[in-house]
């Protein structure tokens, strides 16, 4: 369906951008790889040239272009080169993105500038530069890798700058879809679950991939969108929802570890919500707010009692970290687990030595997390858990929890 079509994809040297490129290449499409990495990166895989070789091997034609979307002239040069090489541009995929999951006071100005420049300004300028050529295509599309705009404050409070920047990409969809209705289709695509990429490895640490899907699911969803007529516009598409509508039934093929619980992606609220007259009690039980017992015992204190009893030299040797918990709600306060000092310890108050990791969450979610009813990574991705400090140690704590769950 995309044979002979020219796709201009930002950030296509690796990850989601490259997956979309390879899917289109199988049809015999022309791919403009507009990305920064010309020389091998010390920690990230792939360059525009290795991606070009893969695209050619898959059956497409590739044009690698060094493009930092923060530099308007580099965008203009790449678009002109694409038009000269392939005769036009049919599809633009705005995939390049920068991320920093930090609070307002922790986000350096240069990181704010990077996210705004790459995510919002880069998407806007690349769209603006490609649009005159897209309007000449028979079935032109712009596809932004950005989320539906969810105004739930929880998606702003933990990483305000990042959220603003991603919603800026989504606002480009809202505006341009209407501005160019009938001429160019403009849509957004977002994953329902976390997708395993090099960027996610850096954010979540080793072992997180088991809770992710492969980039293939986004490539398949993008292909569905880009092969629809240009009348399909102004949509905020979730990959799994679209593919189910297209008849896909087996989603295990997209999982890194089939059967393993998956982390929901950012900006998507949990599908099941309690009614206003209900809240969740300790352990995830639904209790009526009016009839809930005042406080028969402290679930947090009980949890720490069990943790203290389960301490062992093995846990201390394997973890080598000190964790401080700032809990809000009924059993709020400061608690700690010391898995660095000989023998280990846990209890109320600040730890005896400086904490390597500080975790902030509600006391109810803390109890759920330590009893296996809420995965730490899921709590983090959904905004229920804030983590400051050593992320690798936070992952180690999750491993310890899986061993402790039977006792808690």
TrEMBL record:
Residues 312-401 form the SCP2 domain. It comes from the Eukaryota. Pfam families: adh_short (PF00106), SCP2 (PF02036). One of its GO terms (cellular component) is peroxisome. SUPFAM superfamilies: NAD(P)-binding Rossmann-fold domains, SCP-like. Keywords: Mitochondrion, NADP, Oxidoreductase, Peroxisome. InterPro entries: HSDL2 (IPR051935), NAD(P)-bd_dom_sf (IPR036291), SCP2_sterol-bd_dom (IPR003033), SCP2_sterol-bd_dom_sf (IPR036527), SDR_fam (IPR002347). It is found in: Mitochondrion; Peroxisome. Belongs to the short-chain dehydrogenases/reductases (SDR) family. PANTHER family: HYDROXYSTEROID DEHYDROGENASE-LIKE PROTEIN 2. This is Hydroxysteroid dehydrogenase-like protein 2. The lineage of its organism: Eukaryota, Metazoa, Chordata, Craniata, Vertebrata.
